[in-house]
Amino acid sequence: MPQPTLMNLKVLLPFRIFAEKTGVSRIVAETRDGSFGLLPRRLDCVAALAPGILTYENEAEGEVYVAVDEGVLVKTGLDVFVSVRNAIGGTDLAQLHEAVEREFVNVNEREQNVRSVMAKMESSFIRRLAEFHHE
Asked: Which domain holds residue 44?
């Protein structure tokens, strides 16, 4: 009987490898448009990930949940790479959902506020520089 085709999953953080798994039979990830699943024979793809729960399943561990921040997923052949800013592993799905809300979504809101303040400061600086130049 032929051996089933399985995927290799690597979850990458900016400065380290969070997880490296083999024998993965399925992966479910979240994008801004909703969840989507990956099976080994799916065509290669790239997806922008939203903060949420990444689910994968392999024979050794069963179904595993990982809370991930926004990032990117790339499937090429049987290799799936997930590159995110932050990830939290765990077994309690409710706690992971809380972690996503607390850690990732709130951080993104703070970053947007900082970007807004920086944009206002930059436009003010440019306006003053233009006024100075016209004097």
From this structure: 7-134
Is residue 25 a part of any domain in this protein?
yes
pLDDT, one tens digit per residue, over 105-114 is 665 566 666 6
Cβ 21 vs Cβ 56: under 8 Å = yes
Give pLDDT tens digits for 46-83: 999 998 889 999 988 889 999 898 899 999 999 999 99
124 located within any domain:
yes
Which stretches within 13-105 are classed as H helix? 93-99
Its pTM stands at 0.72
DSSP structure class, residue 32: T
> Tell me, what CATH number does 73's domain have?
2.60.15.10
Dihedrals phi, psi of 91, to nearest 5 degrees: -110, -20
Task: Count how many domains the chain has.
Answer: 1
Count the Cβ atoms, other than its own, within 10 Å of residue 125.
10
Q: Which conformational region is residue 132 in: left (phi greater than 0), alpha (psi within -120 to 50 degrees), or beta?
A: alpha
- The reply to whether 1 falls in a domain is no
